[in-house]
Write a structure and sequence with these properties.
The structure is a single chain. 27% of the residues lie in helices and 26% in strands. The protein contains 9 helices and 23 strands. Strand 13 (226-230) and strand 14 (233-236) form a beta hairpin. By secondary structure, the protein is of the alpha/beta class. The relative contact order is 0.16. The protein folds into 2 domains: 3-113 and 253-338 and 382-392, FAD/NAD(P)-binding domain; 121-197 and 208-248, FAD/NAD(P)-binding domain, CATH 3.50.50. It has a 7-stranded mixed beta sheet. Strands 12-11-10-16 form a 4-stranded parallel beta sheet. The chain has helices spanning 12-27, 63-69, 121-124, 131-143, 163-180, 206-216, 308-327, 365-378, 386-392; strands at 3-8, 33-39, 43-45, 59-61, 72-82, 87-92, 97-101, 104-107, 111-113, 155-159, 187-192, 218-222, 226-230, 233-236, 241-243, 246-249, 253-255, 272-273, 286-288, 293-294, 340-344, 350-354, 359-364. It is globular.
Length: 401
Amino acid sequence: MSKRILIVGAGFAGMWSALSAARLIDANGRDDVEVALIAPDPHLHVRPRLYEEGPANMKAPLKAIFDAVGVKFVQGTVERIHAGRREVDAVTVDGGPTTLGYDRLVLATGSRLFRPAIPGLPEHTFSVDQIDEAAELEAHLLALARQPETPARNTVVVAGGGFTGIETAAEMPARLRAALGEHAEVNVVIVERNEAIGPDLGAGPRPVIEEALRELGVSWRLGAGVAAVDAGGVTTADGERIEASTVIWTAGVRASTLTEQIPARRDAAGRLYVDRNLAVEGVPGVYATGDVACAATDDAGNHTMMSCQHAMNLGRSAGHNVAADLLGLESIAYSQPKYVTCLDLGPWGAVYTEGWEREVKLKGKEAKALKHRINTEWIYPPRAQRDEVFASADPLRIVVA
């Protein structure tokens, strides 16, 4: 009787989970285990690039890769997980309901932008969280030239001064001028509720970030977040009014709400606590990976970030270990002690840091060249060639991106 490993989600962690599981099954000559992946779309959405121009093109096809290694793709959306009876309820691409059983489950449904109950936020903000949302922002920017010229038209407010907010803001002056004219006077403002720009990035790269933003013409307001948004702009928590025709929300993400259907502990971001093999604590047969997993990266107390860098290697480890569990083989504990960041700073360049203290190693054009390689090469799927896919899916092939 055949068995099934079911992976939910086709992001970085889900894709690599499927390929790594297929690799181990193939290496052991087993033809009685099916690796199936269910997701709404047979593409990898390259979410780390959605702050750039042309977001509609930021995706890579997966079907040929899955076919090359025998992963079954099911196009649909999981709506309910029944961990007790090892089944999921889903809706297929044609709208029909279906139920899929599994012997082992890997939850890899990622995260979504967190949108708190701020007046006007749903109606009057854009985002770069998903491809369709980033494409909507791009269309809006291009249409600004048809509006009467006012300071508000030429102003973009970026709500949130974290990683995504900084990368987005750094791109905005050039993107606004591309839409409004090379000599247009533009105003890009980051609104951050904390007392420093890039609060989660620490003090190490901050001088570089501030230098770059100043040279790009980006300003920032610290110590008060956005309290309300309307069609004409934003009001901050300390009462400041900023007139703007474009408000981009980037302030924080939360794990997929499917984690709430797993009877296990979750952290403040909704991520499931997992052991070093990425098995969910106290729930037999269920693994979590990528942005839905809170996993230790080392023995020094550091834990994964919601990032592509961690998701890729989490996926490789989860796929190997779920297959090893099912086949009765030895697992390989997830470990990713080297931590780096490479923050895009638009036309100015980038900043690259190493370690959890984020010591600056590269900046400007040199760091930008590295960021370009990460964004256009390293995070993309392998070619649909069986040997290349399996080599790339090795859980001991740690990729720092």
